[in-house]
């Protein structure tokens, strides 16, 4: 029964939309977010691209199952940062699904939202590595 249930969950991926990426098409860094992180992440990525830095962004609305094209997206980027307002559960999940994709994490566990400035500072450091 467990295998049957998992097969049913996996089939849901046939009915959810493909994952979309915004920002620079030839980005050096992919920012990954989900849940309530959308506003700050979107603004940080937009500002960085306006400053001439190449950053892309994808925001997940579907997690289990993931959109079918998730692997294709993640494999395209050399640098990926998963930003979460928790201890990094989504980053851990993505690593189990796509172990070939090197990902870093940016976590904030303070009961406060991300600030655009702190995100830009962290993303800039990642781009410089």
Which keywords apply here?
alpha/beta, 5 helices, 5-stranded mixed β-sheet
How would you describe the overall organization of this protein?
The chain has 129 residues and is of the alpha/beta class. The chain is 40% helix and 18% strand. The protein contains five helices and five strands. It has helices at residues 2-11, 38-50, 70-75, 89-97, 116-128; strands at residues 22-23, 29-34, 55-60, 80-84, 104-107. Strand 4, helix 4 (89-97) and strand 5 form a beta-alpha-beta unit. It starts with a helix and ends with a helix.
Broad structural category: alpha/beta
In N-to-C order, the SSE pattern is HEEHEHEHEH
Shape: globular
Number of helices: 5
Helical residue percent band: 25-40%
Report the sheet-strand fraction.
Answer: 15-25%
Concise summary:
The protein is an alpha/beta fold. It has helices spanning 2-11, 38-50, 70-75, 89-97, 116-128; strands at 22-23, 29-34, 55-60, 80-84, 104-107.
List the helices and strands and how they pair.
Layout: H1 2-11, E1 22-23, E2 29-34, H2 38-50, E3 55-60, H3 70-75, E4 80-84, H4 89-97, E5 104-107, H5 116-128
Parallel strand pairs: 2-3, 2-4, 4-5
Antiparallel strand pairs: 1-3
């Amino acid at each position: 029964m467990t295998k049957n249930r998992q097969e049913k969950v996996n089939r849901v991926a046939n009915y959810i939309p493909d994952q979309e990426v915004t920002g620079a098409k030839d980005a050096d860094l992919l920012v990954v977010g989900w849940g309530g992180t959308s506003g700050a992440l979107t603004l940080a990525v937009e500002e960085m691209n306006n400053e001439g830095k190449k950053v892309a962004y994808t925001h997940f609305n579907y997690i289990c199952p993931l959109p079918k094209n998730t692997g294709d997206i993640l494999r395209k980027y050399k640098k990926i940062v998963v930003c979460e307002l928790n201890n990094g559960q989504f980053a851990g999940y993505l690593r189990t699904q796509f172990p070939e994709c090197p990902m870093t994490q940016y976590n904030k566990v303070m009961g406060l939202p991300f600030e655009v400035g702190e995100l830009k500072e962290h993303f800039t450091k990642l781009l410089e590595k």
